[in-house]
Write a structure and sequence with these properties.
Layout lengths: L1 H20 L1 H12 E6 L6 E2 L5 E13 L9 H12 L3 H8 L7 E7 L1 H9 L5 E10 L7 H4 L1 E2 L5 E3 H5 L1 H5 L3 E6 L13 E3 L7 E3 L3 H17 L4 E8 L5 E7 L12 H4 L2 H4 L9 H10 L8 E4 L2 E4 L2 E4 L7 E4 H6 L3 H8 L4 H10 L26 H8 L8 H12 L3 E3 L4 E5 L5 E3 L5 E3 L3 H15 L16 E11 L4 E13 L6 E8 L7 H4 L1 H14 L19
Parallel strand pairs: 2-10
Antiparallel strand pairs: 1-8, 2-3, 3-4, 3-5, 6-7, 8-9, 10-18, 11-12, 11-23, 13-16, 14-15, 17-20, 18-19, 21-22, 22-23
Helix pairs in contact: 3-4, 9-20, 12-15
Pfam family, one: Transpeptidase
Protein name: Penicillin-binding protein 2
Keywords: Membrane
Amino acid sequence: MLVMAIVLSLFAGRLVQLQGLDSKVLQAKAVQQRVQPEILPARRGAITDAEGHELAVTVEAREVYVDPKDVDPAKRDLVATTLARELNKPKEDVAAALAKTTQRYIPLARDVEPLRAKRIMGFKLRGVGTKETYRRLYPGKSLAGGLLGFTGVDGRGLEGLESAYNDVLAGRDGKQSIELGANRQRIPMTRSQREAPVPGRDVRLTIDRDLQWAAEQTLARRVHDTGARSGSVIVMDVATGRILAMANAPQADLNDWQSAPAEDRANRAVSEIFEPGSTNKVITAAAAMEAGVVTPDTVFRVPDHIQCADQQLKDAHPHGPESMTFTGVLAESSNVGTIMAAEKISSQRLYDMFRSFGFGARSGSGVPGEQDGLLPQWQTWSGSQRCTIAYGQGISVTALQMASVYQTIANGGVRVTPSIVAGTTDAHGAFVAAPAAKGTRVIGETTARSIALMLEAAVGHEGTGEEASIEGYRVAGKTGTAMRYDEKCAGYCGYTATFVGFAPADQPRLMALAVIQDPKKDHYGGAVAAPVFKDVMTFALKSRKIPPTGTKAPAMVLRPAE
């Protein structure tokens, strides 16, 4: 009796401890074991072109996971073999995951197609499960790759617009909690909590998908044919500043971005800076003409070399002293003639004109990865640097900055801030347009029109840009050939070949720029980059149904009658 009383008192004490003193703690542990919290991923918004064609889209996927503790030890090898085959993973990796029997949830693969996940579940492997998720897909593969960027395994944007607009695209994940039994099946009639995910919003770009594709194809061929290191192309709407195409080559396949080198994932059109060369001469021309010291018909006696401080600077080709109008200087891209015009104005005036055109600062486009370029303060210019800057050496720009210069000239002297995002959708899916870009007058309309005519002469048969001419259209543009600074060789090695212009020249609608870095077969802008401009601009004019104006360019005097 005494022994029984002692045993029963121990039982009673234990019951008091379990049901009274420790009840809340034990109840909480029981709930923690039964309740399974789960994140409900939000569908990421799409990135589309200007017409709504999807450039980046989210599709349904499945995550395949294992519960090693629930896998039958006798069938562990079969499970490892089956999953390795279906998921295209090394069997050793799957077997290592199955060996972690103290864990209840180990993801093996994300971004699995629903049909494949259904096939896996059809094997009825104990301890193997799937759950709904999403994966990011880029239908165009490398199309606009450097601009779009990509997402990581967690679905967050890592580079490009995917990163810059992550807060808009990502939405907000939901969550739910349910009660599971020992076999990890839901306990009927138990409570559950669910907070629905909020899907991300779409981002619509100003890009024209077809024009983007054509620009990338043309550029890639030219980079390959010339043995160049890389290249970029930009097409803009003159009146609105909207970027219609921003192409780079080489470029990564966004569906397999991990396999591409970092430089091929970058948006070179805004991240790579280079010395612009002769395309920069229009700014010197604008500064001199706005100051009233030269006109298109001003005559210069131009030798093939000129002494600037301790440097003797030369034209691209040797020639004897010859009389040239300022139009001829620009059309034939004379370095010496440009220096002679720049000597008529102060360094500060020239510097201020560079700043007005947007050099030394980001364009305001919002394109991720954009660099400022390099524009030294005019007080620091050396004697020779003042001369070289006039024709585009000694300063550095991005392709977008130089494109903006020619958009300004084509637009009658009004610079419109470049833009890449047309708008986004709101919480109800309705499109909300981005604010109109700001316009700022940089030079007078008369100066802009005069320079446009001079640039037409540069595309004529006597100019350096004849390869950019388009049959039936009036085209204005400028070649550029600059020595290329390369950190790998710690100095100048190779060239940057550029052509930039607009059409129709008398009623500008579109401007385009092509820049080829370090071509091995020829290196002049007129031979290397102008054909790219021609092909891209021709496609753009036709696809956007822009007809020729039907007018003829006025005769421009390049050399006065002797």
